[in-house]
Write a structure and sequence with these properties.
Elements lengths: L2 H9 L10 E9 L4 E9 L12 H15 L6 E6 L3 E3 L13 H16 L8 E5 L2 E3 L1 H8 L2 E5 L5 E2 L2 H4 L7 H9 L1 H10 L10 H7 L4 E3 L4 H13 L16 H15 L4 H13 L4 H16 L2 H14 L20 E4 L3 H14 L3 E4 L3 H20 L5 H10 E4 L10 E4 L5 H12 L7 E4 L6 H5 L8 E5 L9 E6 L5 H13 L3 E6 L6 H17 L4 H5 L11 H8 L1 H14 L8 H8 L14 H7 L8 H22 L5 H12 L8 H7 L2 H6 L15
Keywords: Fatty acid metabolism, Lipid degradation, Lipid metabolism, Lyase, Multifunctional enzyme, NAD, Oxidoreductase
Pathway: Lipid metabolism; butanoate metabolism; Lipid metabolism; fatty acid beta-oxidation
GO molecular function: enoyl-CoA hydratase activity; long-chain (3S)-3-hydroxyacyl-CoA dehydrogenase (NAD+) activity; NAD+ binding
Length: 702
């Protein structure tokens, strides 16, 4: 039995729901009498909203098309292009759940290698015409071709596998570093995926050397065919630079340091990718591809990939259809926005509303200096966007004209949506809303950016408490995508629908949250932080406690997070939570000392523990080990999540994970917090059961 037949047998029946990407072959007479090209168009039969992907059947369909091309003697070249706006985005990962053995996993890698490498081994030159998004295996198809052109309009080029818990396993780790050098290759393979899955555009790909020529979208294919004809006639040449003579070790070591800083050894995929890139310098193609097969087999059968796919599904699907959101037809139109306050958070909000909604935004504050500073901040940020070329001069002028200031709330009279971002004090916020309600229409939505206070209490004294809603952003507002939308006891569906509509227009991922102390992210982070700080108060060394959770691969250590949030804010939230749940949330006397001393945190300028800050936390006679601190924090999280779900703070554990991924930077490779607690057994130890069904975000057990 041939290898292909063996792979067919192993993968038969896998991914029964695969949307097959077909390989449609047609002959093209090239310009200048260069001959006939067999042009393969990748097309799954849907528009650009459902990109081309490759499962077992799609790979076999492409293999069959290449069989037909290879048997011909009348073609001088082979080309491959995608359907409109899409080249291909790689493996069809919806079928991962059906892969139940390492042998099947390895067969997927080997089949992909067998098919894709044929583009470079046909006996005639091959050309990839990258006309649209090219990610993962889609980019790897192009790398296997001898020549590549790319459209300047391509919005996304990437190798995102490490973001999900995989490696580029169909040639990417071997071909890309040899083509453009290890340093540039590792940006796509390691750095970008670990930086919120950053993508590059077509022009960037060309400048990196991934493509040999670039053309404009309007006549991309025509110009690509003309260029291909020139290459075949010897009228256009492509020079390749050898990168294998240099020592790659320093570049690999530098990338490994980056991975250690971001993940602290928590996810195997980036480390496997680094080893594969290092191998590419000396390995033959067969050796390199075989090593990729082994890595894919291991990772496809690992929990990290299943967790990463679960997290990806949350962000791509659940976030776009928020659970519990009312009918969007109830949403009211927003033509003007008011922002109470002109501090940093308020100014960030004003900028976001102006950019995304493109409606007038007016800020208010208590004195002219604060107001001028707030409006000035917004105008300055708009100027920076213009200087970076992200907006035109006309756009900048229009945006600046939209953002104004007023010392009186009368300016809100014709606003449809007013959000407050003032001091985190219930009485202050109640007074603000009473003043706003006196001047706005009866249907104007009143939103609060509170991080922990009760929406219901905030609205209690108003004539129309039904139009008050929580609208909790995360700092920095322009970067973090989460928006917790909080329904108070009186909040009506029209207000809630308007809030979700505005959140979507702001390009935020909104999650519906019940009015409960600190909502989701801050409630869990405060519990988590409280346990770590309590361990230090009891005598655990600061460094031991701060690095106890390194194995999770969180974006920063607990005390680095404390430094970012600010001790005063952390203390205020801890006090709020202690008042609500005194049996589970404590208030650290040492943290209070840190705030009273005016310290910005525990770290000094060199990011070492500051001796004066350390002195405030010295004492205690019951030190814990790092493992004890880790388990203490995880058990507390499991307990709190179970209570939140029982209280109906969100509709399901998936919403907790979505909030922690998007609002707290919880790593994708963990799938969020609940899959991690399930896999480690902490969920069952603390609560008597799992948060998710077995096999969800983890490898199914026999």
């Amino acid at each position: 039995m041939s290898n292909v037949e063996n792979w067919k047998s192993l993968l038969a029946g896998k991914n029964a729901d695969e949307v097959v990407t077909k390989a449609v072959v047609r002959d093209v007479d090239l310009p200048y009498g260069a001959g006939t090209m067999a042009l393969i168009t990748l097309d799954n039969g849907f528009d650009h909203t459902k990109p081309n992907t490759f499962g077992p059947q799609g790979l076999l369909a492409l293999d069959e098309a290449l069989d037909g091309v290879a048997a011909r003697t009348d073609v001088v070249a082979v080309g491959v292009v995608g359907k409109p706006f899409i080249f291909a985005v790689g493996a069809d990962l919806t079928g991962v759940a059906s892969v139940t053995s390492r042998e099947e996993a390895k067969a997927i890698g080997a089949l992909g290698h067998h098919v894709f490498r044929r583009f470079g081994e046909l006996g005639v030159p091959s050309f990839a015409f990258v006309n649209g998004a090219a990610m993962g295996g889609g980019l790897e198809i192009a790398l296997h071709c001898v020549y590549r052109t790319i459209s300047s309009g391509v919005p996304a080029v990437a190798l995102p596998e490490c973001f999900l818990g995989l490696v580029p396993g169909w040639g990417g780790t071997q071909l890309l570093p040899r083509l453009i050098g290890p340093e540039k290759a590792l940006k796509l393979i390691i750095e970008n995926p670990l930086s919120q899955n950053r993508m590059i555009k077509g022009r960037d790909a060309f400048e990196l050397g991934i493509a040999d020529a670039m053309f404009e979208p309007a006549d991309f294919l025509e110009e690509s065919l003309r260029w291909a004809a020139q290459v075949l006639r010897g009228e256009a040449t492509v020079e390749r630079v050898s990168h294998t003579d240099a020592d790659w070790t320093p570049v690999i070591d530098q990338a490994r340091t980056l991975v250690d800083l971001k993940l602290r050894g928590a996810s195997p995929a980036p480390y496997r990718a680094l080893d594969l890139v290092a191998l590419a310098r000396t390995a033959s193609r067969d050796e390199g591809f075989a090593a990729e097969d082994e890595a894919l087999a291991d990772l496809l059968m690992g929990d990290e990939l299943r967790a990463g796919l679960y997290a990806f599904d949350l962000v791509q699907r659940r976030a776009k259809r928020p659970a519990g959101a009312p009918d969007k037809a109830l949403a009211r139109k927003v033509t003007k926005v008011g922002v109470v306050g002109a501090g940093l958070m308020a100014s960030q909000l004003a900028l976001l509303f102006a950019r995304r909604l493109e409606v007038p935004v007016v800020l208010t504050d208590l004195d002219q200096d604060r107001l001028d500073k707030g409006v000035g901040y917004v105008h300055a940020e708009i100027g920076k966007l213009q200087a970076k070329g992200r907006i035109s001069g006309d756009q900048a002028n229009r945006l600046k004209a939209l953002v104004t200031g007023s010392l009186t709330k009368d300016a809100f009279a014709d606003a449809d949506f007013v959000i407050e971002a003032v001091f985190e004090d219930l009485k202050v916020k109640q007074q603000v809303f009473a003043e706003v309600e006196a001047v706005v229409s009866e249907t104007c939505v009143l939103a609060t950016n509170t991080s922990s206070l009760s929406i219901t209490e905030m609205a209690a004294g108003l004539r129309h408490p039904e139009r008050v809603v929580g609208f909790h952003f995360f700092n920095p507002v322009a970067v973090l995508p989460l928006l917790e939308i909080v329904r108070g006891a009186a909040t009506d569906d029209a207000t809630l629908a308007t809030a979700f509509s505005v959140g979507k227009s702001l390009k935020k991922s909104s999650v519906l949250v019940k009015d409960a102390p600190a909502f989701v992210v801050n409630r869990l982070l405060t519990r988590f932080m409280g346990e770590v700080i309590a361990a230090v108060d009891e005598g655990t060394p600061l460094e031991t406690a701060d690095h106890a959770l390194d194995g999770l691969g969180l974006p920063m250590t607990p005390f680095a997070l404390l430094q970012l949030v600010g001790p005063a804010v952390a203390l205020h939230v801890a006090e709020t939570m202690h008042a609500a749940f005194p049996d589970r949330y404590g208030v650290s006397e040492n943290l209070a000392k840190l705030v009273a001393a005016g310290r910005p945190g525990l770290y000094g300028a060199d990011f070492q523990i500051d001796p004066q800050a350390r002195a405030l936390f010295e004492g205690g006679s019951q030190p814990s080990t790092g493992e004890q601190v880790r388990l203490r924090a995880l058990r507390a999280l499991a307990q709190e999540i179970r209570l939140m779900l029982d209280e109906g703070v969100v509709s399901a554990a998936e919403d907790i994970d979505l909030c922690m991924i998007l609002g707290a930077g919880w790593p994708f490779h963990t799938g969020g917090v609940t899959p991690y607690l399930d896999r480690t057994g902490v969920s069952e130890e603390v609560t008597g059961g799992r948060f998710l069904a077995p096999g969800v975000a983890s490898v199914p057990t026999a």
